[in-house]
Design brief:
Layout: H1 2-23, H2 33-46, H3 48-55, H4 59-75, E1 95-100, E2 106-111, H5 121-130
Antiparallel strand pairs: 1-2
Helix pairs in contact: 1-2, 2-3, 2-4, 3-4
């Protein structure tokens, strides 16, 4: 699904750029900042080199636009994490849940039904990934 979303974003941005180039563009004409911003957003998930090649844009300029987006994403903690393909099935006890951070830091939690520890894994995950470095 993520690949489809990237392809759709790249296709839509490519269509917008092609339309602009046909109507206004040509060599030496400045591409509007809005189109650059769209391309940077696509490049953030699809990759700078691939996006620049597909959209016929300057990879260095595109990379310079993507960097601030990536830095902003690192500062803003995730408010929602989707776990795709997760089924709730009976599992043997205890269950070990491991969280691994971007810099290799990790926490391992051992959970069992007995003992009444009442661990809120969602809250633990939120606290782990939003702590200051």
């Amino acid at each position: 699904m993520r690949r489809d979303k990237r392809a759709v974003g790249l296709a839509a941005t490519s269509e917008a750029l092609t339309s602009w180039r046909r109507e206004f563009g040509g060599r030496g004409r400045r591409i509007p900042e809005g189109l650059w911003a769209e391309a940077a957003e696509v490049a953030r998930s699809a990759g700078v080199v691939e996006t620049a090649r597909a959209l016929r844009l300057d990879a260095k300029r595109l990379a310079a636009l993507v960097e601030p987006l990536a830095a902003r994403a690192e500062r803003e903690p995730a408010t929602f994490v989707e776990l795709g393909g997760v089924e709730v099935v009976p599992v043997p006890e205890p269950v070990v849940v491991e969280f691994i951070g971007r810099e290799g830091d990790q926490i391992r939690v051992r959970v069992s039904r007995g003992g009444g520890s009442g661990v809120d894994l969602a809250e633990l995950a939120r606290a782990f990934w939003s702590r200051s470095r």
